[in-house]
Amino acid sequence: MAQSFDRAISPTPHCYEIQGRAAEIARSLGSPVAGAEHLFLAMLHDGGFPVSVIRDLVDLDAAETAVLAILAGPDYSPPEPPAVLGRSFFVQPWGADLAFELGDSHYGVEHILLAVLRRRDCIPARALAGLADLDALAAAVQQALAAPPAGPPPDAAFLPAEQEMDAPLRRAIARALPAGTTFGFNIQPDERTWVHVIGADGEGDRARSRAVLTAALAGLNRPGVEG
Fold this sequence. Notes:
The protein is of the alpha+beta class. Helices cover 46% and strands 7% of the residues. Strand 5 and strand 6 (194-198) form a beta hairpin.
């Protein structure tokens, strides 16, 4: 399965959502920059992948409490904005460099979490270090990412045979997504092209997948969904 991306590396829809939540958290705490701590809190509040992978290895409520304790401490300083900001707010692109390093064509929330776990001096890693084995957390996420595809999910919607998952369609699907969802699709050339829409709980729904894909195709004046 692949997440949505265009030619240049870009965040997945789920990643955009997490970045937006992180920005809200940072603003509420008086910071002009959303850093690793704010992104991690946003991931915890979201509860979807990849946080769902590590919930059996660490107490997530305790992790949030530990992060907030550091933020409330006398030694905490908010992240510094870039020298040339050019806008009123900035979200640090945690995970982008790691996605490039791994050769991925997109970066998602999984890249953010792995980048945080690698940087042992960042606030989320410091908070987690007292609660769990950071290497074990990273290994669990990497194992989930490496799991082989198992064919179309039961909630998948299929494109017409003549359609392809090109950049305009990916953008149209992203625009049609309900709030709090993201989507995946297959890239195996010997399979029918399918799409499935994933909720914040990590679960899919076939009717929702069909509705999103139908809306995206209609917006591009393309034939509708199959089967």
